[in-house]
Write a structure and sequence with these properties.
A hairpin with a 2-residue loop joins β7 and β8. The protein has helices spanning 3-7, 20-25, 47-52, 56-76, 96-117, 128-133, 158-166, 217-232, 252-263, 268-284, 288-299, 318-333, 370-383, and strands spanning 15-16, 31-32, 38-44, 83-85, 89-94, 121-127, 139-146, 149-155, 188-189, 203-211, 301-302, 304-307, 310-316, 337-344, 347-353, 360-366. α4 (56-76) runs antiparallel to α5, α8 (217-232) runs antiparallel to α12 (318-333) and α9 packs across α10 (268-284). The protein is an alpha+beta fold. The longest helix is centred in the N-terminal third of the chain and has 22 residues, at 96-117. The strands form 3 sheets. Strands 1, 2, 7, 8, 10, 12, 13 and 14 form an 8-stranded mixed beta sheet that branches. The chain has one domain. It is globular, with a radius of gyration of 20 Å.
């Protein structure tokens, strides 16, 4: 595979349009990531303590900023990269042509995060070749979730292995000062208030599921996802975001926090301009184009991530969740999976908006740090 074809490897993967459960069972639809690519992990150290201290929205904003940092570079170089939002960080798989530029930008973003939020953002990378040489795999496919939205789906434990390396005590982080002195976080927005469950739904569930060693991920994940379909209905029916429950929260404090994440300081004239423009957003959302945007926002909300584990945010009733937990507990007792689950009364959302027509994506987490809280439960089980 030459450098150019390797660079566009992910974009050239065929889109799978069959149901996700069926797709997981067909390993011929998955392809090994090229060995000259790299895995990048961003992660907020001590995120659980930050969430417990009430800073879950800052944690989500910083995680989103790391994604925007990488995607803006990839967009500028006309490369599509798979990425996975995790609430308190993100995972990326990038070609060799991007790695130096991306890591330099993330180093600058790490410094900005420390200076402006007093949070330590870990940013590390592992070559895919090293992951393969150490006996692990990263198999990837592209799943067409809706007419306008596709997601990467990964099987194998290669990403989890990379995370363990980067979070290990002997991992050497770069101490080289960043070459760039200005971040490109254009398109990052965090202006929605907490989002209540859709009409006739009671709760928001944030769920993480990993397959136990020796258990085939595709079979275990298929069983869990099909049970969710049976209990909750289609992914559209368990969507935690609905147009009717969306409310902008464009306070000076919220906009100032967003600005500090972007440029490291609050510029008051720019803040005032952004606030005035945000007031017009409420008018725009009542126009035909605005309503179309809100409908596509719901469609393009990132509520399901499969990166070697299931990460999902769903809405439903307590009865549905109890029935799902019956299956999860049974599978856990049988040694098939381990899971972490968090229940909240709302979801939160941060956004990456390049334009209002067709280039935007929205990152969803359960309120009060749903992913971080579910991960805490899962880590306790893994430690045993």
């Amino acid at each position: 595979m030459n450098d150019q074809s390797s660079e566009h490897f992910y974009n050239n993967l065929e889109l799978s349009r069959i149901p996700l459960g069926e797709m997981l069972a067909q390993e011929n639809l998955f392809t090994l990531v090229p060995p000259d690519w790299h895995v990048i992990i961003t992660d907020i150290t001590g995120s659980t303590q930050q969430v417990m201290g009430g800073r879950h929205q800052d944690v989500n904003l910083i995680a989103t900023g790391s994604i925007v940092t990488v995607l803006n570079i990839a967009f500028g170089m006309q490369v599509t990269v798979p990425f996975f939002f995790g609430g308190d960080g993100a995972t990326f798989i990038v070609p060799a042509t991007l790695i130096d530029k991306v890591m330099d930008a993330l180093n600058l973003y790490r410094i900005n995060t420390q200076n402006n939020f007093n949070m330590q953002l870990r940013t590390g990378t592992v070559p895919v070749k090293q992951i393969y040489d150490d006996g692990h795999q990263i198999l990837i496919a592209r799943f067409k979730r809706s007419p306008a939205f596709s997601i990467p789906v990964v099987l194998g434990n290669g990403l989890n292995y990379a995370e363990k390396i980067i979070k290990g005590d002997d991992y050497l982080f770069s101490t080289t000062p960043p070459k760039e002195n200005e971040l490109d976080l254009s398109g990052m927005q965090c202006r929605w208030d907490k989002i209540a469950p859709p009409e006739n739904k009671e709760e928001i569930v944030t769920l993480l599921v990993v397959a136990q060693p020796g258990v085939k991920q595709s079979i275990a994940f298929k069983k869990v996802l099909e049970k969710m379909d049976e209990l909750y209905g289609s992914p559209e029916k368990r969507q935690p975001i609905s147009v009717a429950k969306l409310k902008l929260k464009t306070t000076f404090n919220r906009l100032g926090t967003e600005m500090r994440a972007k440029i490291g300081q609050v510029r008051w004239m720019e803040l005032l301009r952004t606030w005035i423009l945000s007031l017009y957003a409420n008018i725009y959302f009542n126009t035909k184009k605005g309503k179309t945007y809100l409908e596509s926002l719901v469609e393009m909300s990132d509520t399901l991530v499969i990166d070697g584990k299931i990460n999902t945010v769903i809405s439903g009733s307590a009865k549905q969740r109890a029935a799902l937990q019956q299956l999860l507990d049974k599978m856990e007792a049988a040694g098939e999976i381990l899971y972490g689950l968090h229940i909240s009364g709302a979801s939160i959302m941060s956004c990456y908006v390049r334009n209002l027509e067709d280039d935007h994506i929205h990152f969803v987490d359960g309120a009060e740090g749903g992913y971080t809280q579910a991960a805490k439960v899962l880590k306790a089980k893994l430690a045993k």
